[in-house]
Fold this sequence. Notes:
Helix content is 78%, strand content 0%.
Amino acid sequence: MAADDARGAMFRVILPNQPSRVTNAELFFDLVFVFAVTQVSHTLLHHFTPLGAVEVTLLFLAVWWVWVYTAWVTNWLNPELTPVRILIFLMMLGGLVLSTTIPTAFDGRGLWFAVAYATMQVGRTAFWLFATPRHRTAVRHNAIRILIWLCGSAVFWILGGLAHGEERLWFWIVALAIEYVSPAVRFWVPKLGFSSVEAWAVDGGHMAERCAGFIIIALGEAVVVNGATFAELQWTADNILAFVSALVGSIAMWWVYFHKGAEAGSERLSKSAESGRLARLAYTYLHLPIVAGIILTAVSDELVLKHPTGHSDIRTIVSTIGGPLVFLVGTILFKHSIRGFLQLSHGIGIILLLALWWFAADLSPLWLSVATSVIMIVVAVWESMSLRSKPEEAEDSGAA
């Protein structure tokens, strides 16, 4: 009984309209993923081929999945307690190993990547199971379900780490498919069956703040890399304009996500009767393209800063247009999930970016970057002005 009481004390108390704050331990853990995001963007920059894009996408999906699973667990557990903090610090160690192996995950350090990833996923879930008191049957069954699925995927991660070349890629695709499909099928396992929606209640404000923090990490990484790159260049009019364009583009992305969307998401999730289902869609899945768009844009910024003049090559076109495009697709779907309508401003931005693709080869990297930044500013201003002038009507009819 005493052991169960001690375990029960590790769980947060979720109260209506009283979201828990993100703790310093969680923010400390998130810092590791500044490095991870940097590694992903740099790896894509140096392996910008069809195969390289597939490999980097797989690595990014793994990084996001280990982070978002940790966000779910720390939404339920209390990081102010020493055992949970120790878990977070051990996850930081695993995250650093994972991050350092990203550039060579498909070369010499594949096994290190696989072991670090599988250990983080399985170890964190096993701790969650251990921390759950026996009388919380639904939560324990959820932990058991997830642990079974993650142990199954861990086998393929390790097999991929031991394999080479194309075999490694296929093993890891299978492993990642298992992990991404499992929430959609509610972690079904024999005897225990499907998990219930009621067992997945979350602290909506806390979950929204954690995911917003990851967006800040991705945007901040882009700004830091741009500043470091710009500092090493000879300052010409073209380079200065490219730097300003990159910064304006990052600010526009921040504005599009945070000015209305982040707050609305937090409020909607906090009031939802099915917070777990909404969090799974809006924050676990739909934040993926948002973060991916920011990372792809960071690749573009570095390419444009170093080579602002001349004709835009395929790498520059794909990253410069594709980054904002993927970001807006993710954002419009995210806001649809929490508001129930598609933002017209975002839809027009997507159409303009697709139209720009037809003329991209005739533009220099610099002016292509300026064009995409202008489009993002138009989207941000349009949404802000529309929701400000008719907030209630916009919420009801989707006029923005």
